[in-house]
Amino acid sequence: GENVEQHPSTLSVQEGDSAVIKCTYSDSASNYFPWYKQELGKRPQLIIDIRSNVGEKKDQRIAVTLNKTAKHFSLHITETQPEDSAVYFCAASKQAAGNKLTFGGGTRVLVKP
Amino acid sequence: GAGVSQSPSNKVTEKGKDVELRCDPISGHTALYWYRQSLGQGLEFLIYFQGNSAPDKSGLPSDRFSAERTGGSVSTLTIQRTQQEDSAVYLCASSKQASSTDTQYFGPGTRLTVL
Question: So what's the pLDDT on residue B1?
Answer without folding.
Answer: 59
